[in-house]
Amino acid sequence: MERTRRPALYPRLVAALAAAVLTAGGLVAAAQTARAADADIARNGGFESGLTGWSCTAGSGSVVTTPVHGGSGALKGTPAGNDNAKCSQTVTVRPDSAYTLSSWVRGGYVYLGASGTGTTDVSTWTQSAPDWQKLTTSFRTGPGTTSVTIYTHGWYGTPAYYADDLTLVGPGGAPEQPPAVPTGLKADSVTSTSVALSWAPVTGATGYTVYRGGAKALDVSGTSATVTGLSPATAYSFQVAATNAAGASTLSPAVTATTSASGGGGGGGTDLPAHALVGYLHSSFANGSGYTRMADVPASWDVINLAFGEPTSVTSGDIRFSLCPAAECPNVESAAEFKAAIKAKQAAGKKVLISIGGANGQVQLSTTAARDTFVSSVSKIIDEYGLDGLDIDFEGHSLSLNTGDTDFRNPTTPVVVNLISAIKTLKAKYGADFVLTMAPETFFVQLGYQYYGSGPWGGQDPRAGSYLPVIHALRDDLTLLHVQDYNSGPIMGLDNQYHSMGGADFHIAMTDMLLTGFPVAGDTTKVFPALRPDQVAIGLPASTQAGNGHTPPAEVNKALNCLTKKSDCGSYQTHGTWPALRGLMTWSINWDRFNQWEFSRNFDAYFG
Question: Keywords, A to Z (predicted)?
C-alpha cells in the first residue's frame, strides 16, 4: 500500500522542503514538471464519441443520452445469458509506473478493473448504485509492461449498468511512431468496374489508405480493399499507406491493374438487378409450409433455387432431381407445366437454378470418378429443365479438411479439390452466363477466422472453415455467396467479440467479414480476400418456423442500413460501406408464403 501512495506524496514533500530551506525553486519546478506528466490517458472515457476506442462483448454495450454523469453520453452495458457485458480498451502505458483508474457508475452490479498490468491486476465493484457512484482503484505497471487493458462489466443475469467519465491517470506511454510502408500490394481480382487489392499487414498500423493514381481512394482497417466505380478496359495505378494515431507511412510501390472490357468479373447473372432477392423453392418435397407451384412464385423473387438435387449415395456423385410426388404434394404441377413455368420466369428476367445438397443431401466427391459423375448428372438436370446454373448448398459432413491441409489457397483434400474441379468444368461447359451461387453455413466460412480444419496440431473439427478454399478458388466464377446467418452458434467477428444470431448485429458482423476479408485461423500470412459487394447477399429464414435465428423485418432493415449506408450500426463498427451489396436470400419461398409473404414484401418496400 505504501508503495502506491508514495508517488503522490513525494512531489509535495520536495516542494515544501525546497521552499523552506533552499528557496532556489529548481526542485519545485522539477516536481511540478513530474506531476504535469500524469494525465488522463483513457480514450473516450466520457463516451462522447459513441463507443470509439471501446470493444464490448456480444454487442452488449451502447451509448445512451440518459442517464449521464457528465456531457451528453454514457455507456450502458446489458448482461444477457452467459455474457456479462464487458467493455474494454487497451491503453499504452510506461513500465514501472503508477496509475489510478476511476469511473462514475450506477445500476446493478458494476465492476471496474485493469488487466495485463505486469504486477497484480486490480478490480473494484459495487453491488448496487441507485445513483451515480465513483469507483476507484490503482496499480503499478511491471518493469516490462507497455500496455494494459481497462474494463467495466456487470454480472450474469443482472440488470443493465451505466458508466461515465472514466479516467486512467498516469504517465503516457512512449510516443507512437508512424507505421512502416506496406509490402506485397497486389491485385487479386479485376472486373470491368472494380479492382480488388490486398497487401501484407503492418505492425502498429490501425488502418490503411488506398490511393488510385496518386489520389486518395478509400480508407480501410483491414489488409484488403475493393476500389469500385472504374471504367472498363482502363489501366489504373494503386498504392497503399499504413496509418495510426501518429500519422501515415510513405506510399507503397505502385501496382497496375487493367479493368476488363465488359462483364462483371466472373460469375454469370450480371444482368441481375442491382439488389436481388433469392429464395429456395421446395420443389422435390413437402413440409409444413406446403407446396408452391413454380407459376405461383411472385415476381419479387429474382433467383429461384430448386430444392434439392440429392445424390444416390454420399460418395457416388450421382445427383438426381424430380418433382414432389403427388401423394406427398397433391397440388404439384406436371413436369411439362413446371418446365413451361421456368421458361416464363426466365422470360421475365428471373434466374432458376438447381440447388445441390441441403441438410439431407450429403455429397462427398472423394474420387475423380465421383467428380466426373457429378458433372454429368448435374449437366443432365440443367439441360432437362433448361436451368440457368447451380447453387451449392453442401451441409453437414459434405466438406471437411484432411489433417495437414492448412492453407485455403492451396487445398489438398480430395473432396475439396474435386468439387472445385467439377464446378470449373461446368462453368467452362455453359459459358459466361452460367450462374453460380453458394449457401454455406457460418461454421464453414466465418468460423475460419478462428479455426481452420483440424488445426496445425489436429484435434479441431475438420469441417471448420472448409468452404473457404472452394469460395476462394471460384471467386472469379462466383455470382453470389449467401451464407446462412441462421441455425448458427455464436461466431467471432472482426472485433474479436462473439455475435449471436437473431438480430441486426449478427448479420452486420458476419457480412462485414466477407466484405473486408480476414486472416484465416488468425494467420496474417493467410488472408481470405474480400469479396465484391455485388457477390454477397445475406441469408435469413423467412419465418420463425423456417429455422433458428429468425430476424424481424425491423432488424433486417437495420442491418441493411448499416452495411449500405453506415447508419443503425449499433455497437459494431464496420470496415466500410457497401451500397452495392447485392441483397437478401431466404429459406424459403414456401415459408415466406406460409408467413403471408412478410420477408419478400419487406425487401420490396426497402429497395423500392
Answer: Hydrolase
**Residue 103 near residue 135, CB atoms below 8 Å:** yes
Residue 162 phi/psi, 5-degree rounding, is -130, 145
Strands (E), 447-495: 480-481, 491-492
Q: Is 148 exposed, middle or buried (0-12, 13-18, 19+ CB in 10 A)?
A: buried
C-alpha distances (whole Å) from 127 to each of 85, 124, 206, 266, 360 are 15, 10, 37, 59, 51
Q: If 0-12 CB within 10 Å is exposed, 13-18 middle and 19+ buried, where does residue 334 land?
A: exposed
What pLDDT was estimated at residue 205? 84
DSSP 8-state secondary structure symbol assigned to residue 180: P
pLDDT tens, position by position, 49-92? 888 889 898 778 999 999 999 999 999 999 887 678 999 998 88
**pTM across the whole model:** 0.62
Grid cell at residue 90: 487497451
∠ CA 28-34-39, rounded to 5°: 135
Alpha carbons 544 and 439: distance in angstroms, whole number: 19
The confidence score (pLDDT) of residue 534 equals: 93
CB 195 within 8 A of CB 168: no
Output DSSP code: residue 479: S
Interval 139-154 mean pLDDT: 92
Q: Measured between alpha carbons, how far is 441 from 490 in angstroms, rounded to an integer?
A: 12
pLDDT on residue 429: 93
Ramachandran class of 234: left when φ > 0, alpha when ψ lies in -120 to 50, beta otherwise = beta
Helix, strand, coil abundance in the chain, percent, nearest 5: 25, 30, 45
Q: Any idea which residue has 472482426 for its cell? A: 494
Tell which residue, 152, 180, 38, 182, has the closest CA to residue 84.
152
pLDDT above 80: residue 183 = yes
Q: How many residues does the chain have?
A: 608
**Which residues fall within 8 angstroms of residue 603, CB to CB, at 6 or more apart?**
277, 300, 583, 584
Q: How confident is the model at residue 18 (pLDDT cuts 50, 70, 90)?
A: very low
Sign of CA dihedral 16, 19, 21, 22: positive
Name the strand (E) or helix (H) holding 512.
helix 504-516
Residue 7 has pLDDT above 80, yes or no: no
Of the residues 48, 310, 328, 395, which is catalytic?
Answer: 395
State yes or no: is 395 an active-site residue: yes
Query: How many CB atoms are located within 10 Å of the residue 238 CB?
Result: 24
Q: In the numeric block, which cell numbers belong to residue 452?
A: 481452420
Average pLDDT over residues 387-398: 95
What's the whole-number average pLDDT of the chain?
A: 88
Burial (0-12, 13-18, 19+ Cβ within 10 Å), 215: exposed
| Residue 244, beta-bridge partner list | 247
